[in-house]
């Protein structure tokens, strides 16, 4: 596991920054986004520090994506959305603001739910 002491998400994994945990296992951590685009907006991250989709390796990507159905089902049960979007931003022009690979799970509740 790579750890970057300057990375907010590495600090969240370590528990140095508190977070609302949705799911955790040996490879991934999922927690509520601090700025909820819609209710239940969750981030899923690999525990090993990985900057973005370009710099990840197949094993890290495989572990990350393999856990998404489990997290998606947890969100579906907890929040009962009528849909769910997955989003991954890479590099600043594409909207990446935290440089530790993450997948957004954005529950949808119908028109005007806040997410375009
Ligand atoms: P990005 O813009 O890089 O795709 O997404 C980064 C996300 O991380 C943003 O939606 C932002 O609200 C969230 N975020 C940033 N800092 C924190 C934090 O300290 N705690 C939590 N839970 N989310 C954070
Ligand atoms: Zn990190």
UniProtKB/TrEMBL annotation:
One of its GO terms (molecular function) is catalytic activity. Residues 8-115 form the HIT domain. A motif (Histidine triad motif) lies at residues 100-104. GO terms for biological process: nucleotide metabolic process. The active site is at 102 (tele-amp-histidine intermediate). This is Protein hit. The chain holds residues 1 to 116 of 143 of the full protein.
């Amino acid at each position: 596991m790579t750890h970057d002491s300057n990375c907010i998400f590495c600090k969240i994994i370590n528990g140095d920054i508190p977070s609302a945990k949705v799911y955790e296992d040996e490879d991934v951590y999922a927690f509520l986004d601090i700025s909820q685009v819609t209710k239940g907006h969750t981030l899923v991250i690999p525990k090993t520090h990985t900057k973005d989709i370009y710099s990840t390796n197949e094993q890290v990507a495989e572990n990350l994506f393999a856990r998404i159905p489990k997290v998606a089902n947890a969100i579906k049960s907890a929040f009962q959305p009528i849909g769910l979007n997955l989003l991954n931003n890479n590099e600043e022009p594409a909207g990446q603001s935290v440089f530790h690979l993450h997948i957004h799970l954005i529950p949808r509740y119908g028109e005007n739910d806040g997410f375009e």
